[in-house]
Amino acid sequence: xxxxxxxxxxxxxxxxxxxxxxxxxxxxxxxxxxxxxxxxxxxxxxxxxxxxxxxxxxxxxxxxxxxxxxxxxxxxxxxxxxxxxxxxxxxxxxxxxxxxxxxxxxxxxxxxxxxxxxxxxxxxxxxxxxxxxxxxxxxxxxxxxxxxxxxxxxxxxxxxxxxxxxxxxxxxxxxxxxxxxxxxxxxxxxxxxxxxxxxxxxxxxxxxxxxxxxxxxxxxxxxxxxxxxxxxxxxxxxxxxxxxxxxxxxxxxxxxxxxxxxxxxxxxxxxxxxxxxxxxxxxxxxxxxxxxxxxxxxxxxxxxxxxxxxxxxxxxxxxxxxxxxxxxxxxxxxxxxxxxxxxxxxxxxxxxxxxxxxxxxxxxxxxxxxxxxxxxxxxxxxxxxxxxxxxxxxxxxxxxx
Length: 401
Fold this sequence. Notes:
By secondary structure, this protein is of the alpha/beta class.
């Protein structure tokens, strides 16, 4: 998107504001499908948790995408957006058997990641097809909080527990139609991912009636100029070759599935904030904006670096600023960052704000959540209204004590 287009949206809808470029989402989807074009049955399930606005889900559906969900509420959002239940996979962690059964009744694909729930579910519902999430014990991911395939992870059934897993399946007579893994996010080393894939292929040989193998996701996207990213094209070539060879060995056609979230929406997102105050101290120049970690927590939670531009003064001389929010504790988006000269009232643009940004927003400090706009074919569409004070009070009950 052009800076003037973003500025016009900030003027029209005020700030803070999330903006998503539909064309970028579509092109990322096309890039991934092209990388695996030689696979006969290829399926992308968009990870709803990255950005769950129903208009974004509807856009994904139009591309031919399925959904990867982690809660019954995400399943319900997908159904509300018009997805066929068979195009939704449900991969929770630590949920009750009651929620799992409730989701199964909706007709979506169940993915179970622990032996206890697997045994309980299989004993009661042996004819319901189930996918199994395997923990390959491969450490991958750009941050400890997003690496989920290592030996101490709470996610997945350990590959070392395979004998227990097979015994449960034999005793219950349940039908396993898929296996799944997810090693982590921000994966750069394609060979590490391929190593984990080999573990999944070996595991798949123990199940004779599989319909699909789900490799999760975790592709890294660039967060700044010159930043490194996962080479999706190289990965596509290498995994396609190995997957086709495994299909021949397995003796039947399988679906190769992925569950990208960040890869599809991260670069499509822009977060716009207005500068309330420029504050000079003895050693630092602070640019205080009209938002905080209640709206964008990734820099504080993950140490994520979002490129920041002053779109009100794009040709200004670059100076060093610490960009901070209005939350009354540590609330720093960037320390001593080179940004075009900032004045009070300027609009700053945070790049790569499509994934895990609005979806992790809160009402901390009783602040209102921002509006969201989808940009498509040169026009902005409001897809979420800015909250009001009535929204803050909506579910509160005042009692006289």
